[in-house]
Every structure is written in C-alpha cells, then in structure tokens.
Amino acid sequence: MIQISPSMLSCDFAHMADEAKAIVDAGADMLHIDVMDGHFVPNLTLGAPILKCLSKAVPAFYDVHLMISDPLRYAEDFAKAGADLIVFHLESDSDPDKTIAAIKGLGKKVGIALKPGTPAQAAFPYLDQVDLVLVMTVEPGFGGQSFMGDMMPKVNAIRRECDARGLSMDIQVDGGINGETAAIVAQNGANVLVAGSAVFGKPDYRQAVAAIRESAQAAYPRAK
Ligand code: DX5
Ligand code: ZN
C-alpha cells in the first residue's frame, strides 16, 4: 500500500500545529519530522520538546527521521515525545543492533536510513529486524533538493532482497519526491513517500497529496 508522509521541514514553522492539522485533513498517512543536529548533517532543525507539543496538539502517526550522530542516546526522548516510527541512519555513530533493540524496547516501529553513498547491502543484515528501510534520494540536510534517480537500483535491490526473504517491508524514499518522481520510485518498489516542498509549496495540500499518491499507486508493482 502506498503511504504519503509529508515532511514538516517545509511547513510554516510559525504555525506548525495548524500546518500539521491541515496536512492530516488533506489525507496524509503520517507526518515526517526531520531532526538534524548540525553535526551528522550541516543543518539544525528541531528536537523532542517540539515534537512533544506538536503530537499533543495534533494526533497523527509521527514518522521521525533522525539525522543525528547518536540516535541511541536520544531514541527514548523521541519515543516519549510521541514518535510512532523512529528512523535512524546506519552511518551514525550508534551501534545499529543496539539502536534497533532500544527503539523496539520502547514499543515503537523502527527504520534504518541509508545516505546516497551507502550501498543496499549495508541494510541486508538488519532486514529481518526492522519495519522500514529509508533510501535517501537526496543528500540529507535540506529540503527542496533535486531527486537522485540513480538511487533506484538501490531501492530495487532492497525490494528484491525483502521479497526473496518473504518480508513485506515498507521501503521509504525521501528527497525530491513530487508527482513525477513518485511514479519512478513506486515502479522500483518504494511504498512510503516523503514529500516536503511538493506538498507545502502548493496552495492546495489535498490536491498535492492526492497527486503524489495517485502517481505512485498507478506505478507500484503490487498495486496492479
Ligand atoms: C532532507 C529531509 C527531507 C526533506 C525533503 O534531509 O530528510 O525529509 O525535507 O524535502 P523535499 O521533499 O523538498 O526534497
Ligand atoms: Zn527526512
């Protein structure tokens, strides 16, 4: 099933709760929260206190993308702040096995993320333990960058490996997703699509979410 996770990084932060409500009303399946520490990536965004306020104000499924050097240290803070899914980078300093176990122990869904330079095979040892694999389709750090089509063999390879193991994995893509690129990623086996500027940059959020969903749905192999 195709799921759309609009990235709050592109919202109007002066009205974050209203923006989140509008996106939920527009038919989003989850809300993508980009956490950056100015160390793992060259940008700073927000931390657990803001998520705590937002999740209290707006009930939704919170998809938290940790672009931080030590996700193991902060996983509990985000779990307590209302995260439903916590995704951390394999390139971070935290031990992946320990981090996966910690997030599961907190009763949350867990995902592993791969930067563009990290090969599909890096995810393979963890596929049996995680709920989701995030293939970055831009270098993490900023919204509004151009989609990297050369990541599609990676998405494909992870989908094929999951199929071979009989795993119904969620494969998420993040970066440069819009009505056109949605079809490309879905064709290659991605089913959870993050979109920032392609949703918040449009005047009609409902139409923007629907356009991405329809384009992906039509191209997703399983949907046919
Ligand atoms: C980038 C973030 C993305 C970003 C996507 O580091 O992880 O979630 O907000 O924004 P768009 O869809 O504009 O590329
Ligand atoms: Zn993200």
Automatic annotation (TrEMBL):
Q: Which GO terms describe its molecular function?
A: D-ribulose-phosphate 3-epimerase activity; metal ion binding
Q: Which Gene3D superfamilies match?
A: Aldolase class I
Q: Where is the active site?
A: 34 (proton acceptor), 174 (proton donor)
- Tree of life domain: Bacteria
- One BP term from GO: pentose catabolic process
Q: Which residues bind substrate?
A: 7, 65, 141-144, 174-176, 196-197
Q: In which pathway does it act?
A: Carbohydrate degradation
Q: How is the cofactor bound?
A: Binds 1 divalent metal cation per subunit.
- State the UniProt keywords alphabetically: Carbohydrate metabolism, Cobalt, Isomerase, Manganese, Metal-binding, Zinc
* Gene Ontology cellular component list: cytoplasm
Question: What's the catalysed reaction?
Answer: D-ribulose 5-phosphate = D-xylulose 5-phosphate
Tell me which InterPro entries the record gives: Aldolase_TIM, Ribul_P_3_epim, Ribul_P_3_epim-like, RibuloseP-bd_barrel
Q: What is its EC number?
A: 5.1.3.1
Per its UniProt record, the required cofactor names are: Mn(2+); Fe(2+); Co(2+); a divalent metal cation
Pfam families registered for this protein in UniProt: Ribul_P_3_epim
Give me the residues that bind a divalent metal cation, please. Answer: 32, 34, 65, 174
User: What family does the Swiss-Prot or TrEMBL record give for this protein?
Assistant: Belongs to the ribulose-phosphate 3-epimerase family.
Entries under NCBIfam families matching the protein: PRK05581.1-4, rpe
Q: Relate the protein's function as given in its record.
A: Catalyzes the reversible epimerization of D-ribulose 5-phosphate to D-xylulose 5-phosphate.
Which protein is depicted? Ribulose-phosphate 3-epimerase
| Organism expressing this protein natively | uncultured Anaerotruncus sp
What does UniProt list as this organism's lineage? Bacteria, Bacillati, Bacillota, Clostridia, Eubacteriales
